[in-house]
Design goal:
Length: about 270
């Protein structure tokens, strides 16, 4: 049994339900279970997801993967409000220690009503999670997370931002219709604030804190866009305004351009 790791009873109940079910699947092969994201940083609110990580002592078998899929579907039915806000991964201990391209594909689930557990590539971008887990992660069971994860150097964090921008952000420029949702448009703006913060500070902070930093640091022309994103994060229903979409596309281009100064030269 886990001991009320957060100030939110409904989150604690959900985490207890999750732990009981993953224990039924893995038993004594669980090394640890951890929280990261906003619950670890102290910025959890009604718009947050519930970020978790389960570490095992060996590879996840096909039968275990199938059982995990069914378990998450069941949790979503039992708790339709918060059960669909779980966002996490299942990794063996050696895979969480550091990024290894030869061992990077593991079970993962994202938040959302139609999401299912799937195998996902935990590539360089996942160094952001390693950093948060190592520096801020809450151990629900098992040893402190920093004992399982190697330090993530500043250049690795910056490289993770470069990879995200060259894939995720570029695809939004190619398919701007993704920004029609006010919730997603706000998410993009605040995520870009976080990326700029990481590029500048070699650290990771929450979306609200990154937005505050951006308002204090970036040119005034971005302030209305960021304020609108903070409002849209908590009022995510409906369509984004055309001016907000246009501003978000400009902010993506600005972030990509600004990130170039942090590119790491290839070794000769």
């Amino acid at each position: 049994m886990i001991q009320n790791p957060t100030p939110y009873p409904y989150v604690n109940n959900l985490l207890q339900m999750l732990y009981e079910r993953v224990y039924a699947i893995f038993g004594g092969h669980i090394v640890g279970m951890y929280l990261d994201g906003s619950l670890a940083s102290g910025d959890f609110d009604q718009a947050s997801d519930i970020d978790f990580m389960l570490v095992t002592d060996d590879e996840i078998t096909p039968d275990q993967f199938t059982a995990l899929q069914a378990m998450h579907a069941q949790i979503a039915e039992l708790d339709p409000l918060w059960g669909i806000q779980l966002e996490g991964s299942y990794l063996p201990q050696y895979a969480i220690q550091r990024y290894d391209p030869a061992h990077s594909r593991y079970p993962n689930i994202e938040r959302g009503p139609d999401e299912r557990l799937k195998l996902a590539d935990h590539n360089q971008t996942w160094d952001t999670h390693r950093f948060i887990l190592r520096e801020q992660g809450i151990a629900l069971i098992g040893p402190p997370a920093h004992t399982l994860i190697d330090p993530v150097p500043p250049d690795q964090l910056r490289q993770a931002m470069q990879v995200i921008l060259s894939s995720w952000a570029v695809k939004i420029l190619e398919h701007p219709e993704q920004l029609n949702s006010r919730g997603y448009q706000s998410y993009v703006v605040l995520s870009l604030c976080r990326m700029l913060y990481t590029l500048e500070r070699s650290a990771i902070t929450s979306k609200p804190d990154a937005a505050k930093w951006a308002m204090e640091t970036l040119e005034e022309r971005w302030h209305p866009l960021i304020v609108g994103a903070l409002e849209g994060r908590l009022n995510a229903n409906g369509e984004a305004a055309s001016e907000a979409i246009k501003g978000t596309l400009e902010f993506i281009r600005y972030t990509i351009d600004r990130a170039r100064q942090y590119q790491i030269p290839e070794s000769s």
